[in-house]
C-alpha cells in the first residue's frame, strides 16, 4: 500500500501514514511494527517519512483524503482533484499482465498512473482475485449475455469506463472484440504476443499464436504494443520487442520467452502515454524525447 493521509479537518490537522522506510541507501516497505504516523498543522512535517519520488496526490471527495505523497502545500491539496492517470484493464484470463502492472506501479517503476478498474469477461477469470489483492475495483461484462450483439456489449463496457472516469484502457489478454467509441480514440492500448503484422488478427490469441510461429518456421517472434482501433490486432504500433525462436521450442517455451518481453514492453508503453510523449502522424506513432 502506498502512503496515505487522512484529514478530519484539513485546514488544521493532517495525519500521514508512512509504510516506507529509508535504510541509508534506499527505500523499502516497512513491516507492520515499523510503520509510523505523524500529526501536524502542516504536511511538511511528514516529509521525512515519505520518499522523494512519492510526489503524486489523489483525492476523493470525502473528508478523508487519500494521498500518495506528502510533498505538497495545504492549498495545493485542497485544489488538486487528481494528478494520476486512471487506467482500466480489460482481461479474460489469469491476469499475469495485470499483476505485472500493479507490481510496477507499487514499486514506483511505473509512475503517474493507477489501476482504477479491471473489467473481466467472465466471473471465473483469475485476474479478478489479482485485482482484489491490490484493492482495485472489478466488474464482469460477459459477451454471452448480449446474444452476439457486439454493439451492446461494447456500449456496456464503455459506460463502465465512463463511470470510473478512465483515462486509458489496456487490453491485456482480452479475448473479445471491443468496439471502441469515438470518445476513446487514441486511448486504448493492446498487447499482442507476436510481431505485428505477422501472426495476428481474428483467431490469433494465446498458444495459437506461438504454435503458428513455430509451424511456419519463423526464426524471430516477440510482442507488440499498439494503439487499438476497431480491427483485430490493428492500429499504430508503439513498441515491439523481439525474441529468438529456437529449433527445440514448443509453444510453451516460446510463450514464456515472449511474456518476459511483454512484462517490459507494456509498462514502457504506458509510461510513454502518461508522459505525453506519443503522437500519431499518418498512422505512425512518433515518440518524443523527454
Entry keywords:
single chain, 290 residues, alpha/beta, Rossmann fold, seven-stranded mixed beta sheet, three-stranded antiparallel beta sheet, 14 strands, globular, disordered N terminus, transferase, phosphoribosylglycinamide formyltransferase 1, Formyl_transf_N
Notes on the protein architecture:
This protein has 290 residues and is an alpha/beta fold. The chain has two domains: 4-79, no CATH class; 85-287, Formyl transferase, N-terminal domain (Rossmann fold). Helix content is 25%, strand content 24%. The protein has six helices and 14 strands. It has helices spanning 74-79, 96-106, 127-133, 150-163, 207-216, 251-274; strands at residues 4-6, 14-18, 20-22, 27-29, 36-40, 85-91, 113-120, 138-140, 168-171, 188-192, 220-227, 237-244, 278-281, 284-287. Helix 5 (207-216) packs across helix 6. The longest helix has 24 residues, at 251-274. The chain is globular and about 50 Å long.
Q: Any chance you could write out the topology, listing elements then pairs?
A:
Blueprint (H helix, E strand, L loop, with lengths): L3 E3 L7 E5 L1 E3 L4 E3 L6 E5 L33 H6 L5 E7 L4 H11 L6 E8 L6 H7 L4 E3 L9 H14 L4 E4 L16 E5 L14 H10 L3 E8 L9 E8 L6 H24 L3 E4 L2 E4 L3
Helix pairs in contact: 2-6, 5-6
GO biological process, one term: 'de novo' IMP biosynthetic process
InterPro entries: Formyl_transf_N, Formyl_transf_N_sf, GART
Protein name: phosphoribosylglycinamide formyltransferase 1
Strands of the widest sheet, in order across it, are: 8-7-6-9-10-11-12
Cα-atom Rg, whole angstroms? 21 Å
Write down the overall mean pLDDT: 81
What structural category do the secondary elements indicate?
alpha/beta
How many distinct helices?
6
Q: How would a textbook summarize the main sheet?
A: 7 strands, mixed
